[in-house]
């Protein structure tokens, strides 16, 4: 959806939170990032895709060689970032990319999932497993389920979350180790990204135990590693001279995960305290992680892309231009200053390259999946806020009468706040499993296109889009509350539901 058509999240913020400032139409245009993201994704496939598979290499160079990783395949952390690139591609063009996403997930599961010990291994066929890696994959899998409705992703996300539970440290409720067998510190990433995943699984299944565990994880981080400004340090040391102290740095990805966890809690509970906390952390991030002179996002891309997701998601919920302005400036600077002539990106988005990177005459000599995937995801995720999926107009014909009109809006309105998979709701234009504001944006864009193509008259006068939206948003809070109560009535188990291995 183009931003000048409507800012639905802004209208929702007014309806849900009267104290929030009224946000007008924005002139920020994120749609050019779609082309940038598609270009980087294509370059990933061309240079890092492993021939004969759906998987990717760790790195490649100008000689045409692939290198790194294990067994010719990337480590699982960069693959988790590429998973989210494929999620965005599948959201934009499901016909083309959903099969590719599924093939990738199948081969990732076959090669990296440790059936005997549980959890995704760090490398192909290995046994070394990290809880933060698995938290990243749980988020990617849950997101894939939201986008496609394919229950295989939900099943694998639940398996992965069961593994995360194994990493919880005795005596530290909500705290998690970083690596299996390493009990020297507790890790903020495993806790915060795990909290985000747990809330997503609660949304998908309605099992209260996921939300309870997610809230406990976040509470540990908030009480232990969170600083006064809202950012999070990396870890709590358990052994050595620093035992009982937090360290090392308040990295951008932990901050973004804190925002995202709060937004997920806000979505599933409707409690405005979570949105308020996400906004507080976001304001700190807007000042801390962006260059005041260039607007660049000053951190490693494989961490910084999480903040792009977080700011886009913040905007969808409160409509504040601060978030989009930072992202537009940061990503434009990235494209204009950090893309080399071959279409590759180094590790740093805003600062000088690290000494281990080799650049000759402005061209990167070798590049890594983690660095390219983070850029592709950032571009695509930003663009999809304002870009209608390829199947968008047909997807907005909710009553299948061959035209997008007010009748389809009424179908969407009846489904608002419901979960398509479990409630049988209609109005899910983007196929993410829920009927929400994104689907309204697709309907509105399709309706505007349909209206402009007519002669100016229709057999039945259509209600003004703004009036329809205002009426719908006024009832959104009540719909969300009823949906949450309905999910709670269907909860059947007080412990983690067991997923059966394939």
Provide a short characterization of the protein structure.
With 502 residues, this protein is mainly α. The chain contains 19 helices and 9 strands.
Explain this structure.
By secondary structure, this protein is mainly alpha-helical. Among the domains are: 1-68 and 292-387, no CATH class; 392-489, no CATH class. Helices cover 55% and strands 5% of the residues. It has 19 helices and 9 strands. The chain has helices at 8-16, 32-48, 76-92, 94-112, 131-148, 151-166, 188-205, 208-224, 252-269, 272-288, 301-318, 321-338, 369-383, 392-395, 406-415, 420-423, 437-453, 465-474, 476-489, and strands spanning 59-61, 66-67, 177-179, 182-187, 235-237, 246-247, 359-360, 363-364, 366-368. The strands form 3 sheets. The chain has a 4-stranded antiparallel beta sheet. Strands 2-1-9 form a 3-stranded antiparallel beta sheet. A two-stranded antiparallel sheet has the order 7-8. A hairpin with an 8-residue loop joins strand 5 (235-237) and strand 6 (246-247). The longest helix has 19 residues, at 94-112. The protein starts with 7 loop residues before the first helix and ends in a 13-residue tail after the last helix.
């Amino acid at each position: 959806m183009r931003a000048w058509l409507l800012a639905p999240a802004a209208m929702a913020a007014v309806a849900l939170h009267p104290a929030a400032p009224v946000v007008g139409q924005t002139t920020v245009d994120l749609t050019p990032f779609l082309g940038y993201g598609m270009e980087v994704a294509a370059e990933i496939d061309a240079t890092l895709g492993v021939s004969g598979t759906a998987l990717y290499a760790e790195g490649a160079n100008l000689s045409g060689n692939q290198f790194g990783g294990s067994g010719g395949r990337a480590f699982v952390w960069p693959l988790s970032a590429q998973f989210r690139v494929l999620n965005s591609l599948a959201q934009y063009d499901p016909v083309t990319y959903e099969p590719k996403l599924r093939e990738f997930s199948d081969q990732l599961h076959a090669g990296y999932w440790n059936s005997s010990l549980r959890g995704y291994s760090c490398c192909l066929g290995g046994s070394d497993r990290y809880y933060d890696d698995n938290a990243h994959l749980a988020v990617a899998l849950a997101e894939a389920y939201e986008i496609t409705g394919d229950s295989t992703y939900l099943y694998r996300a639940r398996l992965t979350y069961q593994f995360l539970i194994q990493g919880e440290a005795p005596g530290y409720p909500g705290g998690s180790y970083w690596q299996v067998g390493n009990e020297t510190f507790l890790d903020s990433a495993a806790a915060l990204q795990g909290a985000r995943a747990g809330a997503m699984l609660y949304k998908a299944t309605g099992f209260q135990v996921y939300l309870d565990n997610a809230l406990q994880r976040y509470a540990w981080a908030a009480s232990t590693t969170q600083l006064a400004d809202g950012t999070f340090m990396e870890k709590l040391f358990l052994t050595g001279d620093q035992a009982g102290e937090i360290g090392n740095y308040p990295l951008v990805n932990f901050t973004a995960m804190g925002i995202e966890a709060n937004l997920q809690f806000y979505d599933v509970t409707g409690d405005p305290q979570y949105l308020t906390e996400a906004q507080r952390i976001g304001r700190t991030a807007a000042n801390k992680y962006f260059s005041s002179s260039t607007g660049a996002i000053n951190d490693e891309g494989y961490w910084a892309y999480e903040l792009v997701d977080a700011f886009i998601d913040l905007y969808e919920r409160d409509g504040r231009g601060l978030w989009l302005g930072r992202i537009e400036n940061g990503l434009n600077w990235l494209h204009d200053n950090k893309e080399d002539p071959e279409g590759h990106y180094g590790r740093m988005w805003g600062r000088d390259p690290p000494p281990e990177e080799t650049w000759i005459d402005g061209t990167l000599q070798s590049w890594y999946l983690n660095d390219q995937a983070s850029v592709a995801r950032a571009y695509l995720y930003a663009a999809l806020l304002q870009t209608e999926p390829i199947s968008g107009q047909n997807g907005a014909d909710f009553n299948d009468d061959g035209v997008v009109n007010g009748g389809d809006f009424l179908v969407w309105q009846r489904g608002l706040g419901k979960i398509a998979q479990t409630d049988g709701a209609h109005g899910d234009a983007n196929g993410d499993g829920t009927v929400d504001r994104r689907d309204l944006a697709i309907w509105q864009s399709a309706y505007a296109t349909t209206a402009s193509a007519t002669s100016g008259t229709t057999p039945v006068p259509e209600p003004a889009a703004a009036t329809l939206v205002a009426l719908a948003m006024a009832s959104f809070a009540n719909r969300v509350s009823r949906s949450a109560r309905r999910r709670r009535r269907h909860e059947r188990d007080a412990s983690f539901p067991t997923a059966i291995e394939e």
